[in-house]
Specification:
three-stranded parallel beta sheet; globular
Length: 228
């Protein structure tokens, strides 16, 4: 891994330069799943259109998603601020999970989690969820958040390890219109307290602990120290 170095004009210059290109994987290599970009030529054509016809390009790409109400304007740009798909209504959770169930793919695998190798044989823990299983778990946790008083626009903070429940909690927030804020599991108690205060979090989600590089990070202990 490279480190930045100071150039003669005191700016920061990266010493890492990537010149390789990687072709998109074939459908066979990923179990027959369709890819949006099938070749480098197709990628080049898409990039060219995104530069020359940005509104038409991004409108077509956005229509790959499900919209409860289509937008009126693709982009309103008042430098330095931009608003995308103004007037449109969609939901991240519905697009990630529910629509696949509605389309008949409920028994297809929607998430595969692989944990750190912690067993005596060094094998990682692996767990797969179908879209229907994800939908059920997300709906259950969304109901928990609502019972805790979380409403649309409220901030919910996650201080968790890289576990499936993190994805489930994040999508549950999106399902009910809450804003999720993620705090890195390696941060100290003071850093947790600062971020929770800045975000004005209504609810904080954590774990007893999480594996990281062969050790258990005491998440709940750190969290308790942050709020006391």
């Amino acid at each position: 891994m490279s480190t930045p170095s100071l150039s003669s004009n005191s700016g920061i210059e990266s010493t890492l330069h990537e010149t390789r290109t990687f072709d998109p994987p074939s459908a066979e290599s990923v179990g027959g799943a369709p890819w949006i970009v099938g070749s480098m030529d197709e990628y080049g054509a898409m990039h060219k259109r995104s530069v020359e016809e940005p509104e038409a390009f991004f409108a077509d790409e956005a229509r790959r998603l499900h919209w409860f109400k289509e937008w009126n304007t693709v982009c309103e740009f008042n430098a330095p601020d931009a608003k995308w798909f103004v007037g449109g209504t969609t939901n991240l959770c519905y697009n990630c999970v529910d629509r696949h169930v509605d389309d008949g793919h409920g028994e297809d695998v929607g998430l595969v989690w692989e944990g750190e190798p912690i067993g005596p044989d060094g094998a990682p823990a692996v767990k797969a969820f179908t879209y229907r299983e994800l939908q059920r778990e997300i709906a259950k946790f969304a109901h928990v958040l609502k019972r805790l008083g979380v409403e649309r626009g409220d901030v919910v903070t996650s201080y968790m390890g890289m576990v499936p429940e993190l994805a489930i909690a994040t999508l549950a927030c999106a399902r009910i219109g809450a804003v999720h804020s993620v705090i890195f599991g390696g941060f100290s108690s003071q850093a947790i307290a600062d971020r929770v205060a800045d975000a004005k979090s209504k609810v904080i989600i954590t774990c007893d602990g999480a594996w990281r590089r062969g050790k258990v990070v005491p998440l709940k202990e750190n969290f308790d120290a942050a709020v006391n």
